[in-house]
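Q: I'm a student working through a structural biology exercise. My instructor gave each of us a protein and asked us to get a predicted structure, then write a short paragraph describing it. Mine is Gfo/Idh/MocA family oxidoreductase. I'm not confident about reading structure output yet, so if you can add a plain explanation after the tokens, that would really help. Here is the sequence I was given:
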Amino acid sequence: MSTKLRWGILGCAQIATNAVMPAIQASSSGTLAAIASRRLEKSREVAGQFGIGRAYGSYEELLADPEVDAVYIPLPNHLHREWVIRAAEAGKHVLCEKPLALTAAEAGEMVEACRKAGVHLAEAFMYRHHPRMKQVRELIADGAIGEIRGFRGAFTYNDAEDTGNIRFRAEWGGGSIYDVGCYPMSAARFLLGAEPEAVTAHARFSPEHGGVDMMTSGLVEFPGGVSLIFDCGMWASNRQELEILGTTGRLYLPMPFNAREEDADFEWIRDGADRETVRGIGANPYVRQADDFAAAAGGAAPIVSPGDPAANMALLEACLKSARERRRVELVPRSRI
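A: Happy to help. First, here is the predicted structure for Gfo/Idh/MocA family oxidoreductase. I'll explain a few features afterward.
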């Protein structure tokens, strides 16, 4: 591997061109080496925009490129499994958009394929790389709010009029749970350092939008009586928030999942004290994600364990099952290793 991680991009989705690719270029650890699309003219257009040396008209050609060390996969959810496994078999480290797969079984296959190939696999939850999350974890570890008793998280937006959106195709892994519900659920697991025992969810499934869950609310049960109360939606007013409740105080994070340089501050509310605004360390989380990924690909310890994506997928799958079947769903105890 060269001094900088040489990235290949599988697809020209907006999340790639608007956020991840500029972040790789701005990082200290990576460079854009190649891009592929199923339309060569499209990959050439994006390559010209970013000054990328090689453009391919198929994903297979990019994976065969010996001068690509890692790939970023922003493809629709139902294509993640195939191309993560094929990338691993080609010896490439893999950063894949969330959610990693459509089921926990698929995610397990992907994790195992990357382990077997000796490559690093990460799910693109960029918010976990924002320095504010490290500040929050340190406050919790230092006992700033006592023992954690629960979480409250929300991520909603309204895109219901865009009926051709791929997020409204159930067979492609569409719906609010997979698109934005994954954020508060992954955050609760990340901050608590534990896996859930059960979930109960209630959703609005819309025939106008491919039968996907357009709005979901639910309760995720963790060991010790700790819970996450969440809601997520693609047909509701825009909002993001995360609250961590402890025995002696709480932390409130506005914009917990899309914070950048300018909106990193959060609130620390202690019993018997005024609300205190904590000055968060601002950063572009996509740049931090690229640098953390490169470090892990080089052998450093990742911020989450290799098995984390499969564990998170098990929760998302159980949540969707609960909403469809209108019942509480228990999760099989699983390791993060």
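A: Here are two points you could use in your paragraph. The chain has a mean pLDDT of 96. The CA atoms of residues 128 and 285 lie 8 Å apart. It's a good idea to check both against the output above yourself.
Q: Great, thank you!
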